Fold:
Amino acid sequence: MTDPEKPIESSAEEIDEGPPSGEDPMAALVKRSLAEAERARTPAPSILRGVQRRIRKRSRGKFFADGWSTTDARVSHALIAGAMLLILVVAYFALGPVGVQ
Amino acid sequence: MALPDDPDSRLIDRLVARDERAFNELVRAYEGRIVRLLARMVGNEEEAKDLAQDVFVQVFKAVGTFRGDSKFSTWLYRIAVNLCKNRVKYLRVRHANEQDELDSVAEKSLGDARPAGGGGLGRPDEQLAGKQVERIVQEAIQELEPSFRECLILRDVEELSYEEIGEITGLPAGTVKSRIHRARAMLREKVERVLGEKIR
Structure:
């Protein structure tokens, strides 16, 4: 197997450039045809879970091992920390005076 | 690291720092483009999705080696194209005949593109009027040699510059232009042969 980061081919060929893309009717036809195939395709589910699973397996659990990094929810840690603080403050004021008396 | 004007530069910094959430953002941002590119190149949606997962695993592994000489998206495309080539080679060895594999996939995905009986494709005026031509082109693209197909798709569908395609494929820009021109010529010949008419 070759290194996926390195380009594979480097051979030179004779230069036969043809007309620019905008002037070639085949270029427009290729674009239209593949766009048509795209429209016919149903939207695929995200591959994210599969990628995370592969990385977790290959890193032997070092990455993507917890619920935070693998969850689909986009709520940030800061937002959850803020909500927890708010709950604690409310609980303090609600229960604190009762405890003093 | 990344080019200063690369919109992904902050994301890349987080990726290098092994921020798993940044990686999730990266996958969400690019998965559609990468799966579509691979599906066009291998002609099979399931194979493309499997391959795309490997692409992102490779990105996760190697993001630290990204030097920022090119746009991050170009680097990502290069990984995708090279893994795709490796997969095609693997399939060729495994199935002995890669073309049979791609043909059968194209045959399956085109399904009802051909009229019953498997003979001709109907009158040319009917074909030109409808979506039949586009289906014929899709089939003809899958019949192109992979190295020509990838240059054609990167240029005509992904709308990358010749220089970017050169960076992705490792070919000189002149060779890229030449391959695209020849790919279009081969495609034109195949499509015109099926249609029995000239494309204008």
In short: The CA atoms of residues 88 and 94 of chain B lie 10 Å apart. Confidence is low (pLDDT under 50) at residues 112-122 of chain B. Chain B is about 75% helix and 0% strand. The longest helix of chain B spans residues 72-95.
